[in-house]
Design a protein that fits this description.
This protein is an alpha+beta fold. It contains three helices and 13 strands. It has a single domain, classed as Clam (outer membrane lipoprotein receptor (LolB), chain A). Strands 7-8-9-10-11-1-2-3-4-5-6-12-13 form a 13-stranded mixed sheet. It is globular.
Length: about 220
């Protein structure tokens, strides 16, 4: 007994839909975790290029990054900028110069700030929420770590090319807009628990709220 043409067509459509669902499920399963699943430390090379009518700016730095949960510490190694402790749960940043003789750290409130170091793929997606889900391009190795290459939108003109580890850590990313380009890449990477001392100013520092400089509290 043979199936009627209409039934065969329906069965063919159903099979095609099932295959498409399976392909999408596999693709989603292959994506690295959306957020880092481990605390970590890394040495990262940063570069940027901003172009505006009549001029622009470019530069770079090497920073030491430590991440634990919703917190990060960034220490500049070349430009000698202030160290920054970021806490996305509290939406605050604490800036200080470890070499400062006055031993003062400033605390700033933040409004919906994102951080790729802390948030991983979620931080990348926040650059432009209208971009579709990333496409898996292949595999690579950064800082001796295997990572999945992802493309957001059109990386060559308006998008991101990234490499994300199995722990959800963004080890490399190149973010490009028509007049803006930023890239970073991990030179060294080490997954593991980070000591609490990294997420507070050094002993002896005072923390001063930037909006109320007259009020100071001892650093913990």
């Amino acid at each position: 007994m043979t199936a009627e043409p209409g039934l065969r067509l329906a069965l063919g459509i159903a099979a095609a839909v099932a295959a498409l669902v399976a392909v999408r499920a596999r693709a989603e399963a292959e994506l690295p975790p959306e957020r880092p699943t481990t605390p970590y430390s890394a040495t990262i090379r940063n570069t940027y290029d901003i172009r505006r009518p009549g001029g622009g700016s470019s530069g770079g730095d090497t920073i030491e990054v430590r991440v634990s949960g919703a917190r990060s510490l960034e220490d500049s190694q070349i430009m000698e900028e202030k160290s920054v402790i970021l806490d996305l749960e509290k939406q605050q940043a604490i800036e200080f110069d470890p070499k400062a003789t006055d031993k003062v750290a400033q605390r700033f409130g933040l409004n919906d700030v994102t951080s790729t170091y802390i948030q991983g793929r979620a931080g990348l997606a926040a650059y432009n929420p209208s971009w579709p889900a990333p496409k898996i391009i292949g595999e690579d190795k950064v800082a001796k770590q295997n990572c999945t290459v992802l493309h957001y939108a059109k990386p060559e003109e308006d998008g991101i090319a990234a490499c994300v580890s199995k722990e959800g850590v963004v080890l490399r990313a190149k973010i490009k807009y028509p007049d803006y380009e930023r890239s970073f890449e991990a030179l060294e990477f080490d997954a593991g628990k980070q000591d609490e001392k990294w997420f507070r100013p050094p002993d002896g520092f005072k923390i001063i709220d930037a909006a109320e400089p007259e009020e100071a509290t001892p650093g913990e």
